[in-house]
């Protein structure tokens, strides 16, 4: 479980790097991989030794910190996509209205 949680942190950092460089297609692909890894981790038994549990906890805290850094950039991108979609829909409506008056 510890190894997989470390992989999750590494994947989260890759997502962060892709978000910062605005390679959103890569962010989407990495996010799918991340979700699959989380599902696998959730199926594993909880470690019984305290040292491993504490190491996993520290990794999870680091993952949460990286997530918190990623979210503003992702939210900004989502707003931009929604605005773009609204403008596209408005343009289609205007074109349709123009064509119906001809």
TrEMBL record:
<feature type="region of interest" description="Disordered">
    <location>
        <begin position="81"/>
        <end position="102"/>
    </location>
</feature>
<keyword id="KW-0963">Cytoplasm</keyword>
<dbReference type="Pfam" id="PF05400">
    <property type="entry name" value="FliT"/>
</dbReference>
<keyword id="KW-1005">Bacterial flagellum biogenesis</keyword>
<feature type="compositionally biased region" description="Polar residues">
    <location>
        <begin position="87"/>
        <end position="102"/>
    </location>
</feature>
<dbReference type="GO" id="GO:0044781">
    <property type="term" value="P:bacterial-type flagellum organization"/>
</dbReference>
<protein>
    <recommendedName>
        <fullName>Flagellar protein FliT</fullName>
    </recommendedName>
</protein>
<dbReference type="InterPro" id="IPR008622">
    <property type="entry name" value="FliT"/>
</dbReference>
<keyword id="KW-0143">Chaperone</keyword>
